[in-house]
């Protein structure tokens, strides 16, 4: 598998890794988000929406997760979105430079039409759709103790075919550089308690636990 990190400039950095499946060399690109990626990234969000596993059969509305966890980043922070492309999108990282400003923009422009589309009671109680409609209508405020030192935040999701090959690390490193250049000193993320594989990955990437709860934890690190 050949891996190319495609920057905004014409110059690209190349490195090669062995293809563990034995299908020979295959070109994989880490590239900036492009218009037209939206549906594929929404689909990746759904297919990794069960603590990294496929949540396709768990939602009546397959776009609901993407509307919350992908769409606003593509709308308000497209320069901080990067995609793994092996002929089709296979993963992404999405970032927001300033969580407080990002959430304010969403509250003005993104959440209101979604709340009209998904009013309370849109789905049967106890379903995952109903849970995320509640999340949509009851947005929490950013934790001042977290955003003081780690004002940026990120979401990252990779399909199984893109995992275990260093591509997640490549995405994080690409975003850290972009956030640092944008003036963000630190970045945080949320991860479910059951997603132990992701927690171990973030720890290897230099993230430390900032806050812990029974359902998960908030982790953060400097952008340098």
Automatic annotation (TrEMBL):
Xref: PROSITE patterns: GNAT
Keywords tagged on the record: Transferase
Gene3D superfamilies xref list: 3.40.630.30
Domain of life of the native organism: Bacteria
MF-aspect GO terms: acyltransferase activity, transferring groups other than amino-acyl groups
Domain N-acetyltransferase: start-end pairs: 28-224
Protein name listed in UniProt: GNAT family N-acetyltransferase
Species for this entry: Jiangella rhizosphaerae
């Amino acid at each position: 598998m050949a891996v190319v990190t495609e920057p905004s400039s014409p110059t690209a950095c190349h490195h090669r890794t062995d293809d563990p499946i034995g299908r020979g060399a295959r070109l994989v690109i880490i590239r900036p988000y492009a218009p037209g990626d939206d549906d594929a990234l929404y689909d990746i969000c759904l297919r990794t929406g069960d603590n990294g596993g496929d949540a396709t059969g768990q939602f009546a509305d397959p776009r609901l997760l993407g509307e919350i966890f992908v769409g606003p980043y593509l709308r308000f922070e497209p320069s901080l979105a990067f995609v793994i492309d092996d002929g089709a999108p296979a993963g992404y990282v999405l970032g927001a430079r300033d969580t407080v400003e990002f959430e304010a923009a969403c509250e003005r422009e993104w959440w209101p039409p979604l709340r009209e589309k998904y009013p309370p009671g849109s789905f049967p109680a106890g379903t995952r759709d109903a849970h995320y409609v509640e999340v949509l209508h009851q947005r929490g405020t950013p934790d001042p103790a977290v955003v003081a030192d780690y004002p940026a935040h990120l979401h990252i999701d990779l399909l199984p075919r893109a995992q275990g090959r260093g591509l997640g690390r490549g995405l994080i490193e690409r975003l850290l550089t972009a956030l640092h250049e944008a003036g963000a000193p630190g970045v945080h993320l949320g991860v479910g308690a059951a997603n132990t594989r992701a927690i171990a990955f973030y720890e290897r990437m230099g993230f430390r636990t900032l806050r812990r709860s029974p359902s998960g934890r908030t982790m953060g690190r400097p952008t340098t």
